[in-house]
Specification:
Length: 342
């Protein structure tokens, strides 16, 4: 009963088979091979963006930090949600790769940035040599709270940013889960809503380790290539990144896997609520936060459950629970059964 992270899930057999197939013969390096070209075309087709520039990296940290460094100068500000992954879980990577850009936090309920809060923050930034200037906006979909931005919500925030001359980055580490949850098209959740650069996640959707950085704003794409090389994130054997992404995008797998993860989270949430457990945020994708009486976590772990703790009020415990493509109904039902142990 593993609910620590979708990062902890195994790799689907289709991905391992694709890696084995790619491991035949010789091919050009550094992403100039036919496997990579085919995947780039496939991502463009998925996003309905035939002119987009697509590059692959091995980690989400590299995808986000290099994308933001490309959009934001060292003297600029990256506007992010207070609990965004780039703010709380990247060990300062955006600041490091941008040579000093400052992360400015924007409030919003349930992990989603409030438009009025973003407008205020942008209005207070820039105009003086003594402070950082307006740099870039980064949104996260699925958010760190497990909630999902709709196309309209994304467009409202992007409009505020663009009116101030600020480009928009979307951290889509769980982009597949967001698409599956909303039913919106990938294009509607990205460039049609004003997103300039997308980090299209694969690792959290079952892959061994690959993310795509997609530039809809083409004027920055060459700079990204230089930054990727200079930072050591241009893999010489790029076909092994592309093979993974290609296997995920084959047919409807990427949405099937993400949709299954979302469904398991819904099943878990419904079972928890039926047992009187408090959930902190709406459960819209594959992440949920649960609060229960003190002592419950130890009983769950003794029964074999694995999850991360979250801060909780006195007398209570809280947990972050994440489902994946490999979570089974039996995993969920076993967790719920263990929850009843007293």
């Amino acid at each position: 009963m593993f609910f620590t992270s979708d990062n902890a899930a195994p790799v689907p057999p289709e991905v391992l088979a694709a890696l084995s197939e790619a491991n035949t013969g010789y091919t050009p390096g550094y992403g100039t091979d036919a496997v990579t070209a085919a995947v780039q075309d496939r991502i463009r087709a998925v996003l309905e963006a035939p002119e987009a520039v697509v590059h692959l990296v091995a980690t989400g940290t590299a995808a986000n930090a290099l994308a933001l460094a490309t959009l934001c100068p060292p003297w600029g500000a990256v506007f992010c949600h207070t609990h965004a992954h780039v703010q709380e879980d990247e060990c300062g990577a955006p600041e490091f790769f941008s040579a000093g850009a400052k992360l400015l936090q924007v409030e919003g309920a349930h992990g989603k940035m409030a438009p009025e809060a973003l407008a205020r923050r942008i209005a207070m930034t820039g105009g003086s040599v003594h402070g950082v200037q307006r740099g870039a906006l980064t949104l996260t979909n699925v958010t760190e709270a497990g909630t999902v931005y709709t196309p309209d919500e994304t467009a409202a925030l992007a409009r505020i940013a663009h009116e101030a001359g600020v480009p928009v980055h979307l951290d889509g580490a769980r982009f597949a889960n967001a698409v599956a949850a909303t039913g919106a098209s990938p294009a509607d959740l990205t460039w049609r809503s004003g997103v300039d650069v997308l980090s299209f996640g694969g690792t959290k959707n079952g892959l061994m380790g690959v993310e795509a950085v997609v530039f809809f704003a083409l004027d920055r794409a060459w700079e990204f290539e230089l930054r990727r090389k200079r930072s050591g994130h241009l893999l010489s054997k790029g076909r092994y990144l592309a093979a993974q992404m290609g296997a995920m995008l084959e047919g409807n797998r990427w949405l099937d896997w993400a949709g299954h993860a979302n469904a398991m989270a819904t099943r878990l949430a419904e079972g928890l609520k039926a047992r009187g457990v408090t959930l902190w945020h709406p459960v819209q994708a594959n992440i949920l936060f649960a609060q229960w009486p003190a002592g419950t976590s130890a009983r769950l772990r003794a029964a074999g459950a694995r999850f991360y703790d979250a801060p909780a009020p006195e007398g209570y415990e809280a947990a972050r629970l994440v489902t994946s493509w490999s979570t089974t109904p039996e995993d969920v039902d076993g967790f719920l059964a263990a929850l009843q142990i007293s």
